[in-house]
Write a structure and sequence with these properties.
The protein is an alpha+beta fold. It has helices at residues 87-90, 137-330, and strands at 2-10, 16-24, 27-28, 33-38, 41-47, 53-58, 63-69, 76-81, 94-104, 122-127, 132-135. The protein has a domain at 2-135: Sandwich (Immunoglobulin-like). The protein is 60% helix and 22% strand. The protein is elongated, with a radius of gyration of 67 Å.
Length: 331
Amino acid sequence: MLFMCMTNKSYAQWKLDVEATIKKDGKKLEGVNVALIKNGSEVEKVTTSVNGKFAFRLDPNADYTLKMSKPGHVSKLVNITTKNIPAEEMSSGEDGAFAGWEVTLFEEIKGIDYTILNQPIAKIAYDPVSGGFDYDKAYTKTVQSQLSVLNKEYEVKKKESENKAVDEAKAKALAEAKAATDAAKAKADAEAKIKADAEAKLKADADAKAKAIAEKAAADKLAADKTKADADAKKKLEEEAKAKAIADKTAADAKAKADADAKLAADKTKADAEAKKKLEEEAKAKAIAEKTAADAKAKADADAKAAADKTKADADAKKKLEEEAKAKAIA
C-alpha cells in the first residue's frame, strides 16, 4: 500500500527531496534497507531506524528505483523519474519534494506467488498539470488490483501459517512435556540411587565417626584429668605464694605507716614551733612599728604646735607695734 502527498521547498540548486515511512501491520518498521538505484546502478543505501523513515535527494534528468527490503520480508520497488521537468521549474529557485507517503512490507510466507512485486508498486513523475510530482494513477490502479488479490491470498496463507504454527507449537509442547517427564523420571531414578548410595556412605561414615569420637573422648578425659591435677597443684602453689606475698605486704605496709605517722608527728611539732616563732616575731615587729609611728606623730604634733605658737607670737608683736605707732601718731 502506498500513500502520497506533494510539497515544495527552497534550495539554491534544484533537487527532488524524497521522504517516506515504511510500516508493517500499521507500525513503523526498523531495519529496512532502502537502496537508491540511479539509471540502473545503486548509488546510495540507508537503513530505517525506529521511526521507519528514509530520505534521499535526487538529481534531475535521471530514472530512479527505490528498493525496500528486509530479511524475512517481501521486497517492494518504487520508480521515480526526474526527467521532463520544465526548465523554468528547475530555475525557479525552488526544489521539488515528494514526501509524506508510506510503504507497507509484510513477512514472506512460502506458497505465495510474489511475481507481481518484481515490478514497481508505483511510478512517480513530474505532472505538468499540477506543477509538482505525482504518481501514475492508471498504473497504480492496475497494480493495486493485482496487489489486492495478492493481499487476500497473503491473509489466507498467513492465517494458515499461524494455525500451523499453533499446531506445531502444541505438538512441540507435548513432545517437550513428554521428554521432560521422561527426563524427570530418569533424573528421579538416578537421584534415588545416588541418595541410597549417599545414605549408605553417610551411615558408614557416621559409625566410623562415632567410634573415633568415643576413642577421642576417652583420650580427652585422661588428658583432662591430668591437666586438672596439674592445674590444681599449680593453683595450690600459687595460692600459698600469694598468701605469703599478702602477709609480707601487710607487714611492710604496717611498718611504712608507723614510720609515716612518726614523721608526720615530728613534722607537726616542728611546724608548730616555727609558726609560734613567726607569730612572736611578727608581734614584736608590729609593736616596734607602732611605737615608731607614735613617736613620729608626737614629734610632728610638737613641731606643728611650736610653729603655730611662733606664728601667733609674731602676729601679736606686730599688732602691738602697729597699735603703739598708731597711738603715737594720734598724740
